[in-house]
Amino acid sequence: MPLDSELPSDGPAQALTRAARRLGLRYSRGHVREALSRQPQPASLLALTKVAASLGLRVKAVKTDIVTLGTLEAGMLPAILHFQQGAHSGFGLLEALSTPATSASPRFRLWDSQHGSRDVEQVRLVQGWSGVLVLLERGATGVPEQGFVWHRLSEKLLEDWRVRPQLLGAAASTGARLGWGGLLLVLLVLAVSAQPPGPRPFVALLALLCVVGLVASVIALDATHQDGPIPGCRAGGAVDCTSVLRSAWARPLGLPLSGLGTAGFATQLLLLCTTASGGGSGALWLVAASFLPSALVSASLLVLQTHMRRFCGLCLTVHGVNALGAATFLSGPWPEVSAVSIPSALLACLFFGVLLTAALAGPSHRSPPQASTHPPDSALSTLALHLQQPLLNLDGAALGPGLGAPQAPHELVLFVHPSCHACADLPDEVDRLAARHGERLRIHVALAPTRADNPGDDAACTALVAAGVAWGATGMLSLLREAKKDYGRLEKSAAPGSLLAMDSGRGAADLEQALPLAREHVRAALEFQRQHIQSLPALFLDGRRCEAPFPHIAQWLENPAMRQLLSSASMSPPSSRQASA
């Protein structure tokens, strides 16, 4: 299950950057993120400790308890805490400790990028904290970051600073409601007393330019809110709408430029509409003049896109509209306007505010919590985290064929699928683990279709499991390796069992006899997968979700002390385990 929404769920980059700044080091998040990306497991605790040392910090990662955590001295803070719930993990910064007069339990001041700094009760902290504490101390000077000031300014502009565009609706403040209401009242009074002239000859040209700009801006705005390819736009090469519209530069201060363009062109169109119903010449002049600053903004964005070496067809369309509109304003025979029409200017502000709010309205897109990628760096640490996982009602023999001694004291259940790219090396890992520790570990391989409504996938998985029932799990792993090379061939086959028999050079009769049991295995695996698994591959050791790498599992089984810890934690029989949905 995901981490509690009140607990930190940052990656190591955010926590480490914040800690480094608290200790007086000048590093940007981008610099730390880049250093982490060069590590084999960028999201792991091992990567965090290595990068912290390169920044000039002395690091000590320890496993402790909540009582010891509450006795830390102020000089030992800030420190980084690791949080773990199920398959999800995150990091947070412990900034301070305090003991309220009305409570004997300390309060922990935590920081993370989503919540900022706030106090957390001990009872809430212990629910998600894994027990891993990273103590930091400023040591030798690390390698300085080149261009820190520019990088930090870019982070503030593109990531940290956020404006509140909500001008109307439930999210608007009382001041905003009173302000827009007063503005509307003034406009109504001025509109009654105004004497608008007739339409102007260049209305058609300005309307055409605004319509073209509005269509391009709306398409670009939709593209920034959605994943996947952009209709009508290429990806890759110099003209790449995806890389331009979904870059950080397309959302300065958290506002999408395409949203500003949509609101701007729509405002111009609405002002033009007022001229048709008796609006003054000042409104028409304002519409034409507004293309001049828009053209300057377009020129700046073109310089930025040239620097990025990426251009967007939609953006170029908007830039062309702004340039042509500015040229029309500078060369057109516009009427003499002694002063900008106050009613038109106020009406433009009202239109722009309402349309900008409407353009940016929509569901917020929060990133899903990142799955754990084996944060600890030692077999003992991974074992400690593994033993904290909930114990599930899991019977490997009912989920798939197995290899290793049937009476082995430990059981590993592996959920895979032929189409899973991350499962490519698992058959070899399983073979090596079974060869070394088959007397201590029984390994069951479970297969289930990724979609229950795909009969081809269901038949292919059932055929592979039937092969494991008939010819052993080792033969099943061999066929699984081959199926991964061209799974579509097996999935689309009308008789996948016969195809597997032909590929393996075995008779199909044994496979047909194993089909009823194989179907039971697949149904059981599918049901368990629906309840407990979000992504593949998934490993469960002795009824607990296992995030440790295979070499660590091998060390658990080889080391007598670790093996004793593992055995004592898995002594409860399967019937006494609590299922967790």
Automatic annotation (TrEMBL):
It is a multi-pass membrane protein. One of its GO terms (biological process) is proteolysis. The chain crosses the membrane at residues 167-190, 202-221, 283-304, 311-330, 342-362. GO terms for cellular component: membrane. The keyword Acetylation does not apply. It comes from the Bacteria. Residues 4-136 form the Peptidase C39 domain. Pfam families: Peptidase_C39 (PF03412), Thioredoxin_4 (PF13462), VKOR (PF07884). GO terms for molecular function: ATP binding; oxidoreductase activity; peptidase activity; quinone binding. Belongs to the VKOR family. This is Thioredoxin. It comes from Myxococcus fulvus.
